[in-house]
Amino acid sequence: MRDARALVERIGVLRPLRVRDFGLLWGGQTVSLIGDGIYLVAIAWQAYDLSDSPSALAAVGLAWSLPQVVFLLGAGVLSDRLDRRHLMIAGDLLQGAAVCTIGAMSIAGTLTIPWLVALTAIVGIGQAIFEPAFLSVVPMIVEADLLVPANSLAQVVRPLAWTLIGPLLGGALIAGVGTGPAFVLDAGTFAFAAVMIALMRTRPAARDGEEQASAWDDLKEGVRYAKRTRWLWIGMVTALVSLVAVWGPWDVLVPYVVRNELGGSAASLGLVLGAGGVGSVIVAVTMGQRGTLPRRAMTTLYLTWGGAMLMLAAFGFVTRVWQAALAAFIAQSSLSALMVIWYTVVQMLVPPRLMGRVMSLDSTISFAGVPLSFAIVGPAADLFGADQVLIGGGIIGFAITIGFMFSRGARDPELDGSLEAARADEVASAEALAAPV
User: Fold this and answer.
1) Which of 39, 114, 334, 393 is positioned for an S-S bond with 245, CB 3.0–4.6 A?
2) CA-based torsion, 248, 250, 254, 255: positive or negative
3) Which CATH entry fits the domain spanning 2-199+215-431: 1.20.1250.20, 1.10.357.10, 3.30.710.10, 1.20.200.10?
4) pTM of the prediction?
5) Of 75-79, 122-126, 283-287, 433-437, which range is least confident?
6) What is the pLDDT of residues 65-115, one digit of tens each?
7) Angle 199-218-343 (CA atoms, 0-180°, nearest 5)?
């Protein structure tokens, strides 16, 4: 036991695990994310089995993403008013029930594209309920000086489970026992995650009398805060526009290219996605061990963001599975870095009482481009071809992201001293906790 504690202290990215609630949260999330990785391969293979057209998988993606745009803001308000654990449990159970139904219908041979679309929409609603509560609960669990390692650990576990272990396991399961059992196994991981969250002791933060406003007033307060915080809304709008260009092509056309142009199997798709997971893990472990943000954090964020967008274009040129795996490795490495930076900056600078609303607003605005991306990608691929859409989407996403980097206010936290002040507060807090009583 003593050796285990010493190991946790030496490896920076593991330090948040000494906090009981954080350990429970990420124990459950690790298993759930492995299930999500299985789902990532299974949903693509299932859609293409039912209808071998990019438009079919695009319709499934649209059904999953559109409910999130509709429900995320309301879920964010609730996450600042209710026990965030309860919302996370409800979201997990709803997703698990829908995925289990997909699996059962697939096994019975009764699944059709309309049913797949409808059930995937329920998965999207469950994720909308879960996501704001999950993103805003971390600062309630760990101290400020552990935020970078905590977010880095998330970027280690997420790609390791979701884009490495899960897809590899999903490809093997589909090849061995079929798509339906893979969905059923994924459903079980949601139930496990819900149990882990139920064991947490975190309670909702107390709200004073002045905060007892209506849900509508709470929502307006969060929108007003984001509107006057220039770097925040520029980041959200950047995500909105760039995701229109790249999300649909990535989810719909990368599996299409691997299956139809490279002649790959479900295991090949798992390998490509898994390579991205390896890159993400390497970057996240490095950042977690470092323990602090880069000095020019916002510049680094936009440069890695642009690089990830550009890598989508590489899929339009690949001729071998290993080349696709290399492109995924670079893309996901870049995304891992930007996610650690973005969430840490938000958690450091946004007031805790507004965190749920700001996180949900971030997700809503960013995600608003995803249904549009799915709606465009199918017809665009039919009209221009998969490779041309991948190349165009990657170049457009890159250009938009770098353009926003140079807009006024986008990099304010690194230029106006607010990040340095927040870092100084972290150091002071850590020293005060370490000082003898």
Assistant:
1) 393
2) negative
3) 1.20.1250.20
4) 0.69
5) 433-437
6) 888 888 887 887 787 778 888 999 999 999 999 999 999 999 999 999 999
7) 55
